[in-house]
Amino acid sequence: MLNGYLKLGRGSRKVLVLSGWFGSSADWDGAANALDLDAFTYVFFDYRGYGRSMHIPGAYSFAEATDDALRLIDHLRWDRFSLIGHSMGGMAMQRVMLAAPHRIECMVAISAVPACGARMPAERLANFERAIDDIATREAILNASTGSRLSKAWISHMARLSSDTSLPQAFGAYLKQWTGDDFSALVENNPTPVKVIIGATDPSMTAERMSGTWLAWYPNAELETIANAGHYPMQETPAALASTVQTFLMAHAGKEMQS
User: Fold this and answer.
1) Which of 194, 237, 241, 242 has its CA nearest to residue 218?
2) Are 250 and 13 in contact (CB under 8 A)?
3) 230, 75 in Cβ contact below 8 A?
4) Can you give the pTM of this predicted structure?
5) What is the reported pLDDT for 255?
């Protein structure tokens, strides 16, 4: 059984998009009008237990997600492709890259958890665990991660949407993955081109943090900060994000990875 997904575009440049912990294949709905669907074909992938794959049981692990993603890519008959990963999806896409390195043209890491995981202190992790079953905690996390500057209506909508599009058991299992996994030794000096994008008001995925992880491990990485965005730029500043992402993808389209 293939995972559920949303496919947009008809272009020759193929892009697989992996969502974050609170997200799903619907994350980029607000940015769809800013995507070049003649130049690119985007596939927005849903992990088991999420979105269009909520009905698919599983272990809810990155290893499983990697196998599922590559099975879908083979089904689509894509040879080479690029990866976009948001938040937790940053770790997931690196697992896909490690499993099929010579099929990857480049990666875009948006507010993305590095390969070492989130490395949360116990108290903060316990708070995130409470979000599995508590909407108010999800709202608090969303508010903090976007700089406590967005409307209560938007925060409430995003929290409810995340609850409606993920199973609690999947939500909890993936939390253990992106907070407890560490495969940074496997990506050190990796030549894959990477565009690292952060929001100016994101208190966790900061320039300092990205410089010590993504930019330290990937010699062909570059960093950009998007103004007036927090942890969710595809919803907060969709047109600006789409522009910078597609400029980077176009620059690396069709290039072979150089070691």
Assistant:
1) 194
2) yes
3) no
4) 0.96
5) 63
